Amino acid sequence: MPDALPVVIVGASMGGLRTAEALRRAGYSGPVTVIGEELHAPYNRPPLSKDVLSTGVSHEAVAFPARAATADVTWMLGARAISADLEARTVTTDDGREHPWRALVIATGLRARRLDLPLIAGRHCVRTLDDAMALRDELVPGARVVVVGAGFIGCEVAATARKLGCEVTIVAPGADPLIRPLGAELGAELRRRHEAHGVSFQLGRTVAAMLGESAFEGLQLDDGTIVPGDVLVEAIGSECNTHWLDATDLDLTDGVLADAALRAVSTDGTVSHDVFVVGDIARFPNLLFDGVARRVEHWNIPTDTGKRAGAVLGAGLAADGSFDEVVAKGFTPMPAFWSNQFEMSLQAYGLPGLGAGDIRILEGELSGAVAVGYYRAERLVGVVGLGLKAELLPYRQEIAAHAAS
Amino acid sequence: MIKIEVDMDLCQHYGQCVFEAPNLFKLNDDDKLEYHAEADDSELENVEAAVDVCPMQAIRIVE
Ligand SMILES: Cc1cc2nc3c(=O)[nH]c(=O)nc-3n(C[C@H](O)[C@H](O)[C@H](O)COP(=O)(O)OP(=O)(O)OC[C@H]3O[C@@H](n4cnc5c(N)ncnc54)[C@H](O)[C@@H]3O)c2cc1C
Ligand code: SF4
Which residue from B31, B51, B55 is facing A390, i.e. has the nearest CB? Predict the structure, then answer.
């Protein structure tokens, strides 16, 4: 009886949770199973690199509130999917069990990329709650913390560690932090502000070797400089958790390709009707900008894609004729991002990276509160505000207006 | 009736919630958040959407 088969969601984080909720909202009342590698029920990741590191890390403090509508969802936590068979419609977990499904949702997100170095004590990354708890224990006053990578997570961890009284050095290959997402001027300004708080930088440098036999003692950089340290934080980006899909014919170039209804797309271009992709791992087109499929690692995306996938899948399962209408609605989520580093609150809308070639100050000045606009072909495609809040909303509207035009 | 609580110590007045539930949340002339603490059940979906988009996770639906 195929009707009794569950919708299986792989990945028990924000994207998986929002999809399950949206399925219920769409009226689907059949079984839902969420398979997740972590032992924790879904929780919010952004605090992990920010205040939660300093105020004490617990699951309670970051867990998403459970909702009545999803009370009957089956959570298989601590189980890792190792393979999927899209023809037989099964997923296999690392305990050897096979899970048949009527629809599959891929929500396995990203993992932290690691430096190719021996595994010794003192090496950290920050992707999961367990990572943050392990790091928290080592961020004691006076500890020398070396952060490799000057992206958002690296800069946030550096700021948090500094606030906790650690000596902090950031090592990164670029000329300034955050240049790739934000551009040179804002990057330089963020560096100045970090430096004013006592963070040191080794920029334009890569890691040549690690010092320490059984525990981390420092790094040797490509120019021979030695950066001594007690704690190493690797914040060098992430990799997509697609391994378990390797045997399928899905297009796994940079995440998993999906159409605007979040249905998975195969290498030959076939759109699946029962396999969906949500969250950080989804590479999908967003007509707010153009038809190009991109992955967007912004916090609102798991929620927006989860809601969309749940609505489309729910309509398909309901078979009440609403499916075409739901799909036709289109999908133009506004990427939203924020970051807190020291007293700086940075807020962004749109895709600044698309407008990296034409960056303009919209209001304010770099040394104070500022709004920076990112243009592509004379159109505002992204805005980043430093120390501004509601003032940014008109720019958000301006970016959104393009979708309609 | 839905009861809504916003932790004003957490709220950063980003105004994301305003887009999801404009009947219940607004930024006032000083760009500070104002909200209705009670809402009709018909607003549940919007209130949940506001909870979901709040970057500070400051909004709670209290039973
Ligand atoms: C430290 C940190 C700070 C951040 N700060 C911000 C911020 O300030 N602003 C912002 O906009 N965004 C931020 N983000 C990004 C945001 O948190 C992510 O976009 C979001 O978590 C992605 O959700 P997801 O559900 O797609 O994937 P994830 O949260 O990565 O969840 C994927 C889940 O799938 C599980 N999984 C993976 N493989 C398998 C498998 N084979 N079988 C079973 N389970 C599996 C994983 O264990 C994980 O629990 C931050 C992220 C991190 C890590
Ligand atoms: S979204 Fe959250 S932080 Fe922003 S104004 Fe609303 S309650 Fe405050």
Answer: B31
